[in-house]
Amino acid sequence: MNTLPLWPFALLATLVALGYRQSRERLVRPRTLARLAAAMLALSLYGVMSTFGASLVPVLAWAAGFAASVRLGGPVFAPRGLAREGEAVRMPGSWVPMGLMLGIFVARFALGFATGTHAAVMDEPWFVATACAVLGLLSGGFAARAAAVRRFAA
């Protein structure tokens, strides 16, 4: 008998809780945001590598999405209304981090489902490149936010 794994639901609950916490005004240190960005980068890249392997197309597509998000996503992802308080930064609440986290979760879940059902689309280069670029874009949003806060705090 197949049992439904519980860890995806635990992970989803954790991501929703983290996202909700970031929807409230808070005082953060720039390195805390950098750690969150690194964690989301790792989750996203792990998703690419575990699903498609370390081959050229998936990794380059992910890197291109990540770079585009970091380079061009600052105005979209950067928090507004920051205020410096000592070494920390007061940030207004934002639903953007939750959207990014849930985007990564949904993309990874969909890729896991497609892999588990042996969907033919998983062998299509256009799909592989698109899925990897989307994961790169989403994780790059965290890096763009962290970089904006770091520049503000400097």
From TrEMBL:
This is Uncharacterized protein. The chain crosses the membrane at residues 6-21, 33-53, 59-83, 95-114, 126-148. Pfam families: DUF6622. Keywords: Membrane, Transmembrane, Transmembrane helix. It comes from Pelomonas caseinilytica. It comes from the Bacteria.
